[in-house]
Design goal:
The complex is a heterodimer.
Chain A: E1 5-7, E2 10-13, E3 19-24, E4 31-37, E5 44-50, E6 53-57, E7 65-68, E8 75-79, E9 88-96, E10 100-105, E11 109-113
Parallel strand pairs in A: 2-11
Antiparallel strand pairs in A: 1-3, 3-8, 4-5, 4-9, 5-6, 7-8, 9-10, 9-11
Chain B: E1 3-7, E2 10-14, E3 19-26, E4 30-38, E5 44-49, E6 56-58, E7 61-66, E8 71-76, E9 85-93, E10 102-104, E11 108-113
Parallel strand pairs in B: 2-11
Antiparallel strand pairs in B: 1-3, 3-8, 4-5, 4-9, 6-7, 7-8, 9-10, 9-11
Classes of the chains: A mainly beta, B mainly beta.
């Protein structure tokens, strides 16, 4: 158990629908990251937060994607008007910057867009 | 542009073999290098390397970093079927780097046959 939890574990949706994923990091971790991973590829960076501030968002990220971390604790990732190309594993990770660079990953949310 | 390249992308061996996985990088402001093992879900942490020439060891796995030649290797001796996984390499950047200061390679998929 890594301590980072993600919900749901699996999501099947129809093209055009909106989906929202949740990530609860390890409680004392101030940094939270979202990655997307497709089969045979390494994790692709999407965005990250330090406390409640979103410090960076991938240039490759469509404006259909938005993420929040309103109180510096849990985070949500929303995808609007889903497309089949959004089908992937969405991974959340957290760490404490400056103390331990090691990322702790959640088990991911597997999204399938039909 | 910062990048991390892993080789080979996939590898098939038989139980008992020894394997060497490679990770090379071209980045600005290197801070440390991480190795992860990913089976079906969350990547799990293996090693963090910050200094050249110091081998990290855990059971049959070991890793070393060469900051002059900009690469790291991960060795697995006496492989077992349970070692079958994707092995990910990630480079942590000092503050000011992109992608949340962490860049992943595409991974090496290792398959160990009985």
């Amino acid at each position: 158990d890594t301590g980072v939890s993600q919900d749901p574990r699996h999501k099947i949706t129809k093209r055009g629908q909106n989906v929202t994923f949740r990530c609860d990091p390890i409680s004392e971790h101030n940094r939270l990251y979202w990655y997307r991973q497709t089969l045979g590829q390494g994790p692709e960076f999407l965005t990250y937060f330090q406390n409640e501030a979103q410090l960076e968002k991938s240039r490759l990220l469509s404006d259909r994607f938005s993420a929040e971390r309103p109180k510096g604790s849990f985070s949500t990732l929303e995808i609007q008007r889903t497309e089949q190309g959004d089908s992937a594993m969405y991974l959340c990770a957290s760490n404490v910057r400056g103390i331990n660079e090691k990322l702790f990953f959640g088990s991911g949310t597997q999204l399938s867009v039909l | 542009e910062d990048k991390v390249v892993q080789s080979p992308l996939s590898l098939v061996v038989h139980e008992g073999d020894t394997v060497t996985l490679n990770c090379s990088y071209e980045v600005t402001n290197f801070r440390s290098l991480l190795w992860y093992k990913q089976e079906k879900k969350a990547p799990t942490f293996l090693f963090m390397l910050t200094s050249s020439g110091i081998e990290k060891k855990s059971g049959r796995l070991s890793s070393i970093l060469d900051k002059k030649e900009l690469f790291s290797i991960l060795n697995i001796t006496a492989t077992q079927t349970g070692d079958s996984a994707v092995y990910l390499c990630a480079v942590v950047l000092r503050d000011g780097g992109s992608q949340g200061n962490l860049i992943f390679g595409k991974g090496t998929k290792l398959s160990v046959k009985p």
